[in-house]
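cron nightly-structures :: item 1 of 1
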Amino acid sequence: MQRCAWCSDDPLYVRYHDHEWGVPNRNPQVLFEFLLLEGFQAGLSWITVLRKRERYRQVLFGFDPQRLARMTDAEIDERMQDPGIIRNRRKLEAARNNARAWLRLEDPAAFIWSFVEGRPLVNHFPMHQQVPAITPEAEAMSRALKKAGFSFVGPTICYAYMQACGLVMDHTTDCHRYVQLADSSTASAQAGSPMQVH
């Protein structure tokens, strides 16, 4: 089965590629989780974060922004001793900070999706090398998130976030998920939520 070139044969990566990456997600809890995970990835590989994702869920209160916003310095100290996560104090402090910023948003899911006008951007790249690392939409999201008080939200992180949560569909045209997700976006358009084609 043909998959995007970035997807290795690691079962964790395959599951992520086949079931999550590029699938439009409007669940605020999932959107928040991915925003933090993308920040944790900064300077590292995505597979590293995926392998630690379950442990992050355990130590970061299931990515509950209400509870995470109340995380104490002592709780951060405790997590800095946990080998199951990426032990970076700045990233853990950013997770707490970003939870607080998330809670200040009136409608977080609508805010996140506003950068693509509420509908997925469907791209048609034949090769992985053609997929951009940054787009104007990601730059706009990064500026707005920083203005709202978020950190670890540079434009590269924001574009990876948009891909992960399906704001952008960047499966290459030779990937089996490309047809499935392009078709589902077309169906969504016919149902009254038009897709954007780049």
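cron nightly-structures :: done
The radius of gyration is 17 Å.
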